[in-house]
Amino acid sequence: MAELLGFPPQVLFGQLLIGLINGSFYALLSLGLAIIFGLLNIINFAHGAQYMLGAFVAWLGLKFLGVNYWAALVLAPVVVAAIGIVIEKTMLRRLYKEDHLYGLLLTFGLALIIEGSFTHFFGVSGQPYSVPAALSGGNNLGFMFLPTYRAWIIVASLIICFGTWYMIERTKLGAYLRAGTENPQLLQAFGINVPLLITLTYGYGVALAAFAGVLAAPIYSVSPVMGSNLLIVVFAVVVIGGMGSIAGAIVTGLLMGLIEGLTKVFYPEASTTVIFLVMIIVLLIRPAGLFGKEA
Length: 295
Fold this sequence. Notes:
Structural class: mainly alpha
Helix content: over 70%
Largest sheet: 2 strands, antiparallel
Distance between the termini: 43 Å
Number of helices: 11
Strand content: under 5%
Number of domains: 1
Number of strands: 2
Strand order of the largest sheet: 1-2
Shape: globular
Protein backbone atom coordinates (compact mmCIF):
# COMPACT_ATOMS: atom_id res chain seq x y z
CA MET A 1 0.00 0.00 0.00
CA ALA A 2 2.82 2.38 0.89
CA GLU A 3 4.45 1.89 -2.52
CA LEU A 4 1.15 2.53 -4.30
CA LEU A 5 0.92 5.85 -2.49
CA GLY A 6 4.43 6.77 -3.58
CA PHE A 7 6.19 6.18 -0.25
CA PRO A 8 8.72 3.48 0.67
CA PRO A 9 7.12 1.14 3.25
CA GLN A 10 9.92 1.94 5.72
CA VAL A 11 8.85 5.60 5.74
CA LEU A 12 5.14 4.89 6.23
CA PHE A 13 5.54 2.20 8.88
CA GLY A 14 8.33 4.14 10.58
CA GLN A 15 6.06 7.15 11.02
CA LEU A 16 3.21 4.93 12.16
CA LEU A 17 5.55 3.49 14.81
CA ILE A 18 6.52 6.99 15.96
CA GLY A 19 2.84 7.92 16.01
CA LEU A 20 1.99 4.86 18.08
CA ILE A 21 4.78 5.68 20.55
CA ASN A 22 3.58 9.28 20.87
CA GLY A 23 0.03 7.94 21.18
CA SER A 24 1.14 5.69 24.03
CA PHE A 25 2.38 8.74 25.95
CA TYR A 26 -0.78 10.69 25.05
CA ALA A 27 -2.89 7.78 26.33
CA LEU A 28 -1.01 7.45 29.64
CA LEU A 29 -1.01 11.18 30.36
CA SER A 30 -4.59 11.82 29.25
CA LEU A 31 -5.69 8.80 31.30
CA GLY A 32 -4.20 10.38 34.42
CA LEU A 33 -5.91 13.68 33.62
CA ALA A 34 -9.23 11.93 32.96
CA ILE A 35 -9.08 10.07 36.28
CA ILE A 36 -8.33 13.24 38.24
CA PHE A 37 -10.99 15.29 36.48
CA GLY A 38 -13.61 12.57 36.23
CA LEU A 39 -13.35 11.49 39.86
CA LEU A 40 -12.14 14.67 41.60
CA ASN A 41 -13.40 17.45 39.28
CA ILE A 42 -9.94 19.04 39.27
CA ILE A 43 -8.31 20.19 36.00
CA ASN A 44 -4.75 19.19 36.87
CA PHE A 45 -2.53 21.64 34.99
CA ALA A 46 0.47 20.37 36.99
CA HIS A 47 0.28 17.04 35.13
CA GLY A 48 3.07 17.97 32.72
CA ALA A 49 5.32 18.97 35.62
CA GLN A 50 4.59 15.66 37.35
CA TYR A 51 5.46 13.82 34.13
CA MET A 52 8.76 15.73 34.14
CA LEU A 53 9.30 14.89 37.84
CA GLY A 54 8.99 11.17 37.03
CA ALA A 55 11.78 11.46 34.44
CA PHE A 56 13.96 13.49 36.81
CA VAL A 57 13.47 11.06 39.72
CA ALA A 58 14.70 8.27 37.42
CA TRP A 59 17.67 10.33 36.20
CA LEU A 60 18.67 11.59 39.67
CA GLY A 61 18.25 8.11 41.14
CA LEU A 62 20.58 6.64 38.52
CA LYS A 63 23.16 9.43 38.81
CA PHE A 64 23.41 9.71 42.60
CA LEU A 65 22.04 6.43 43.99
CA GLY A 66 22.66 3.93 41.22
CA VAL A 67 18.95 3.14 40.87
CA ASN A 68 18.53 1.26 37.59
CA TYR A 69 15.74 1.69 35.06
CA TRP A 70 13.59 -1.21 36.30
CA ALA A 71 13.67 0.02 39.89
CA ALA A 72 12.94 3.57 38.68
CA LEU A 73 9.77 2.36 36.92
CA VAL A 74 8.42 1.52 40.39
CA LEU A 75 10.21 4.09 42.54
CA ALA A 76 9.54 7.23 40.48
CA PRO A 77 5.72 6.82 40.36
CA VAL A 78 5.69 6.15 44.14
CA VAL A 79 7.83 9.24 44.90
CA VAL A 80 5.83 11.54 42.62
CA ALA A 81 2.53 10.08 43.89
CA ALA A 82 3.66 10.87 47.45
CA ILE A 83 4.34 14.47 46.42
CA GLY A 84 0.93 14.57 44.74
CA ILE A 85 -0.77 13.25 47.88
CA VAL A 86 0.80 16.07 49.92
CA ILE A 87 -0.47 18.59 47.34
CA GLU A 88 -3.96 17.07 47.44
CA LYS A 89 -4.20 17.01 51.23
CA THR A 90 -2.79 20.51 51.80
CA MET A 91 -4.15 22.47 48.79
CA LEU A 92 -6.55 20.77 46.40
CA ARG A 93 -8.87 19.39 49.07
CA ARG A 94 -10.00 22.95 49.84
CA LEU A 95 -11.17 23.47 46.24
CA TYR A 96 -13.40 20.46 45.50
CA LYS A 97 -16.61 22.42 46.04
CA GLU A 98 -15.39 25.47 44.17
CA ASP A 99 -15.48 26.29 40.46
CA HIS A 100 -13.09 24.27 38.22
CA LEU A 101 -11.21 27.49 37.47
CA TYR A 102 -9.73 27.63 40.99
CA GLY A 103 -8.20 24.18 40.69
CA LEU A 104 -6.85 24.99 37.24
CA LEU A 105 -5.21 28.21 38.47
CA LEU A 106 -3.71 26.50 41.52
CA THR A 107 -2.24 23.60 39.55
CA PHE A 108 -1.03 25.97 36.83
CA GLY A 109 0.82 27.96 39.48
CA LEU A 110 2.30 24.77 40.92
CA ALA A 111 3.47 23.74 37.46
CA LEU A 112 5.24 27.07 36.98
CA ILE A 113 6.93 26.78 40.40
CA ILE A 114 8.11 23.20 39.79
CA GLU A 115 9.32 23.89 36.26
CA GLY A 116 11.01 27.15 37.28
CA SER A 117 12.80 25.47 40.20
CA PHE A 118 14.16 22.65 38.04
CA THR A 119 15.19 25.11 35.32
CA HIS A 120 17.11 27.11 37.93
CA PHE A 121 19.06 24.07 39.15
CA PHE A 122 19.45 22.06 35.94
CA GLY A 123 19.02 24.55 33.09
CA VAL A 124 16.90 23.94 30.01
CA SER A 125 19.31 21.61 28.21
CA GLY A 126 18.31 17.95 28.35
CA GLN A 127 20.08 15.25 30.35
CA PRO A 128 20.71 11.84 28.72
CA TYR A 129 19.27 8.65 30.20
CA SER A 130 20.46 5.36 28.72
CA VAL A 131 18.21 2.62 27.40
CA PRO A 132 18.52 -0.44 29.69
CA ALA A 133 20.74 -3.17 28.27
CA ALA A 134 17.92 -5.71 28.22
CA LEU A 135 15.90 -3.48 25.87
CA SER A 136 18.68 -2.30 23.55
CA GLY A 137 18.86 -3.28 19.90
CA GLY A 138 15.91 -4.20 17.73
CA ASN A 139 14.44 -6.53 15.13
CA ASN A 140 14.31 -6.26 11.35
CA LEU A 141 10.71 -7.04 10.36
CA GLY A 142 11.44 -6.76 6.65
CA PHE A 143 9.19 -3.77 6.01
CA MET A 144 10.75 -1.80 8.91
CA PHE A 145 13.25 -1.94 11.76
CA LEU A 146 11.57 -2.16 15.20
CA PRO A 147 13.72 -0.96 18.11
CA THR A 148 13.12 -3.12 21.18
CA TYR A 149 12.71 -0.19 23.54
CA ARG A 150 10.03 1.41 21.35
CA ALA A 151 8.11 -1.85 21.33
CA TRP A 152 8.41 -2.02 25.13
CA ILE A 153 6.91 1.47 25.48
CA ILE A 154 3.85 0.46 23.48
CA VAL A 155 3.35 -2.81 25.36
CA ALA A 156 3.88 -1.26 28.82
CA SER A 157 1.52 1.63 28.05
CA LEU A 158 -1.22 -0.68 26.80
CA ILE A 159 -0.93 -2.93 29.87
CA ILE A 160 -1.15 0.02 32.29
CA CYS A 161 -3.92 1.80 30.38
CA PHE A 162 -6.24 -1.17 29.97
CA GLY A 163 -5.42 -2.46 33.45
CA THR A 164 -6.51 0.92 34.83
CA TRP A 165 -9.67 0.88 32.72
CA TYR A 166 -10.53 -2.60 34.01
CA MET A 167 -9.92 -1.57 37.63
CA ILE A 168 -12.18 1.48 37.39
CA GLU A 169 -14.95 0.00 35.24
CA ARG A 170 -15.06 -3.66 36.31
CA THR A 171 -14.01 -3.95 39.97
CA LYS A 172 -15.54 -3.14 43.35
CA LEU A 173 -12.82 -0.55 43.99
CA GLY A 174 -13.78 1.20 40.77
CA ALA A 175 -17.43 1.16 41.81
CA TYR A 176 -16.45 2.82 45.09
CA LEU A 177 -14.48 5.48 43.19
CA ARG A 178 -17.41 6.28 40.90
CA ALA A 179 -19.85 6.31 43.79
CA GLY A 180 -17.54 8.62 45.74
CA THR A 181 -17.85 11.28 43.06
CA GLU A 182 -21.62 10.97 42.65
CA ASN A 183 -22.75 10.56 46.26
CA PRO A 184 -19.87 10.73 48.77
CA GLN A 185 -22.18 11.09 51.79
CA LEU A 186 -23.99 7.84 51.01
CA LEU A 187 -20.71 5.99 50.42
CA GLN A 188 -19.33 7.30 53.71
CA ALA A 189 -22.45 6.02 55.47
CA PHE A 190 -21.43 2.51 54.37
CA GLY A 191 -18.13 2.88 56.21
CA ILE A 192 -15.91 3.81 53.26
CA ASN A 193 -13.23 6.43 53.96
CA VAL A 194 -14.07 8.76 51.07
CA PRO A 195 -11.35 11.41 51.74
CA LEU A 196 -8.69 8.67 51.71
CA LEU A 197 -10.17 7.24 48.51
CA ILE A 198 -10.01 10.65 46.84
CA THR A 199 -6.42 11.21 48.00
CA LEU A 200 -5.29 7.85 46.66
CA THR A 201 -7.10 8.52 43.38
CA TYR A 202 -5.18 11.75 42.87
CA GLY A 203 -1.96 9.96 43.81
CA TYR A 204 -2.65 7.25 41.22
CA GLY A 205 -3.38 9.80 38.49
CA VAL A 206 -0.10 11.54 39.28
CA ALA A 207 1.74 8.19 39.36
CA LEU A 208 0.59 7.51 35.78
CA ALA A 209 2.23 10.77 34.68
CA ALA A 210 5.45 9.83 36.49
CA PHE A 211 5.43 6.34 34.93
CA ALA A 212 5.14 7.95 31.49
CA GLY A 213 8.07 10.22 32.41
CA VAL A 214 10.30 7.23 33.19
CA LEU A 215 9.30 5.55 29.91
CA ALA A 216 10.11 8.77 28.05
CA ALA A 217 13.50 9.39 29.70
CA PRO A 218 15.59 7.10 27.44
CA ILE A 219 14.13 8.42 24.16
CA TYR A 220 13.62 12.10 25.00
CA SER A 221 16.09 14.22 26.90
CA VAL A 222 15.26 14.69 30.58
CA SER A 223 14.51 18.40 30.68
CA PRO A 224 12.48 20.76 32.91
CA VAL A 225 10.38 21.82 29.91
CA MET A 226 9.57 18.31 28.64
CA GLY A 227 6.18 18.35 30.35
CA SER A 228 5.04 21.80 29.28
CA ASN A 229 5.87 20.96 25.65
CA LEU A 230 3.49 17.99 25.79
CA LEU A 231 0.72 19.17 28.11
CA ILE A 232 -1.31 21.27 25.67
CA VAL A 233 -1.47 18.39 23.19
CA VAL A 234 -2.55 16.02 25.98
CA PHE A 235 -5.31 18.41 27.07
CA ALA A 236 -6.52 18.49 23.46
CA VAL A 237 -6.61 14.67 23.47
CA VAL A 238 -8.66 14.69 26.69
CA VAL A 239 -11.14 17.17 25.20
CA ILE A 240 -11.50 15.05 22.03
CA GLY A 241 -12.09 11.88 24.04
CA GLY A 242 -14.43 13.57 26.51
CA MET A 243 -13.45 15.17 29.83
CA GLY A 244 -13.37 12.49 32.49
CA SER A 245 -13.86 9.54 30.11
CA ILE A 246 -11.42 6.74 30.91
CA ALA A 247 -12.02 4.80 27.68
CA GLY A 248 -12.00 8.05 25.71
CA ALA A 249 -8.58 9.02 27.07
CA ILE A 250 -7.01 5.67 26.08
CA VAL A 251 -8.58 5.22 22.66
CA THR A 252 -8.24 8.87 21.63
CA GLY A 253 -4.64 9.09 22.82
CA LEU A 254 -3.58 6.14 20.66
CA LEU A 255 -5.71 7.30 17.72
CA MET A 256 -4.35 10.86 17.77
CA GLY A 257 -0.80 9.54 17.84
CA LEU A 258 -1.47 7.48 14.71
CA ILE A 259 -3.19 10.40 12.95
CA GLU A 260 -0.22 12.61 13.81
CA GLY A 261 2.17 9.99 12.41
CA LEU A 262 0.22 9.65 9.16
CA THR A 263 0.07 13.42 8.77
CA LYS A 264 3.88 13.56 8.96
CA VAL A 265 3.97 11.26 5.92
CA PHE A 266 1.34 12.89 3.72
CA TYR A 267 1.41 16.54 4.83
CA PRO A 268 4.28 17.23 7.31
CA GLU A 269 3.47 20.93 7.62
CA ALA A 270 0.20 20.09 9.39
CA SER A 271 1.61 17.47 11.79
CA THR A 272 1.93 19.91 14.70
CA THR A 273 -1.63 21.22 14.34
CA VAL A 274 -3.66 18.21 13.17
CA ILE A 275 -4.69 17.22 16.71
CA PHE A 276 -6.05 20.71 17.36
CA LEU A 277 -7.91 20.66 14.03
CA VAL A 278 -9.49 17.36 15.05
CA MET A 279 -10.40 18.88 18.43
CA ILE A 280 -12.18 21.81 16.75
CA ILE A 281 -14.14 19.49 14.43
CA VAL A 282 -15.15 17.18 17.31
CA LEU A 283 -16.25 20.09 19.51
CA LEU A 284 -18.38 21.52 16.69
CA ILE A 285 -20.10 18.17 16.10
CA ARG A 286 -20.10 16.74 19.64
CA PRO A 287 -19.19 19.29 22.36
CA ALA A 288 -18.94 16.60 25.07
CA GLY A 289 -16.21 14.75 23.13
CA LEU A 290 -16.28 11.37 21.40
CA PHE A 291 -16.82 9.36 24.58
CA GLY A 292 -18.10 12.08 26.89
CA LYS A 293 -21.60 12.33 28.30
CA GLU A 294 -23.78 15.27 27.35
CA ALA A 295 -24.57 17.55 30.27
